[in-house]
Write a structure and sequence with these properties.
This protein has about 300 residues and is an alpha+beta fold. The chain is about 40% helix and about 20% strand. Strands 1-2-9-4-7-10 form a six-stranded antiparallel β-sheet, with helices on one face. It has a four-stranded antiparallel β-sheet with strand order 3-8-5-6, with no helix packed on it. A hairpin with a 2-residue loop joins strand 5 (about 65-70) and strand 6 (about 70-75). The longest helix is centred in the middle third of the chain and has 18 residues, at about 160-175. The model is unreliable at about 1-10 (pLDDT under 50).
Length: about 300
């Protein structure tokens, strides 16, 4: 297949023979796109997307994998679950595999760094460094967590997704970028900032809270806000919100509200979403909790 430069940069050519089994296309995730693929033997045509990509291998590939940045070629006898490939935007690349290949694909543009952690970078467009089939347990874990959000129909859990994205952005800048992270003082939020954020959370537990909105109250970026909030409370913003929702859920259950109604009124994606967090924090399911209270 012959491709012109216009074709390569069009971002519309199908790079894989099959559509992804899972995609975040219909979500409102901020700046990050996820796909889960199970592709047959294939040669990915040489391409250069306008977005950076992270390919996270989720199975052991026993046949050779060839990844390349023309004119360099990188050959691997096999890849393991947790091996990742980082391909910066506008970098020509391709790949060949001889057996079915399963992977998570994360895509994002350069504005993601400025959106999540502007205080820690000296340029709005930090340069990523290409990396091939490198083990990275943290990125592997983030990819699986995001995939699980989609599979469990919890893709509107923006606070959790944005928290994972913040961790990903910081990790990429620290380990896959020419940009050195600027160290910032970590002295916790001021009493006024913490009071305002907690009051906002308390009054909006029924809504889909976002890390962006909480950080804006404190006039900080999501990344810096998350670090200071955890230093002040010992919890991440997501952990704190879940804790508040479960405490409120106890009250509503004791007032006679059904588990389904409580889930709907406290911003949970569905009843099982509430039940899972309730059991994790309380030690019993909502129904078991009510039974114990009635004894």
């Amino acid at each position: 297949m012959i491709m012109t430069d216009d074709d390569r940069n069009a971002n519309v050519l199908p790079l894989y023979p099959k559509a992804p089994l899972l995609s975040s296309d219909r979500t409102q995730w901020s700046g990050l796109h996820l796909e889960y693929h199970q592709q047959p033997p294939h040669q990915v045509p040489e391409n250069a997307l306008n977005e950076s990509q992270i390919i996270i291998h989720t199975q052991q590939l026993l046949s050779p994998l060839v990844e390349y940045l023309p004119p360099q070629r990188f050959e691997f006898e096999q890849t393991k679950p947790g091996d990742i490939t980082v391909i910066p935007a506008h970098v020509y690349n391709g790949a060949i595999w001889e057996k079915e290949c399963h992977f998570i694909l994360l895509k994002f543009n350069s504005t993601l760094f400025e959106q999540y952690t502007p205080e820690r970078i000296s340029t709005s467009n930090p340069e990523l460094i290409p990396s091939f089939s490198r083990a990275d347990p943290l990125i592997y874990g983030i990819g699986w967590a995001l995939k699980s959000e989609l599979e469990n129909h919890e893709s509107e859990n923006h606070l959790y997704v944005e928290s994972l994205t913040t961790t990903l952005v910081t990790h990429l800048l620290r380990h896959y970028s020419t940009q050195k992270l600027i160290n910032l003082p970590l002295q916790g939020l001021s009493q006024q900032q913490l009071k305002q954020v907690m009051a906002y959370i308390d009054h909006h537990l029924d809504q889909n809270l976002t890390l962006m909105s909480l950080a804006a109250i404190a006039h900080l970026s999501p990344s810096y806000f998350s670090a200071l909030f955890k230093q002040s409370t010992g919890l991440t913003p997501h952990q704190y919100v879940i804790q508040c929702r479960i405490n409120r859920a106890k009250q509503l259950l004791l007032q006679g509200m059904s588990v389904a109604e409580v889930a709907l009124n406290l911003g949970f994606s569905h009843q099982s979403h509430l039940s899972r967090h309730f059991k994790r924090l309380v030690g019993v399911t909502p129904k078991e909790f009510l039974k114990r209270q009635s004894v």
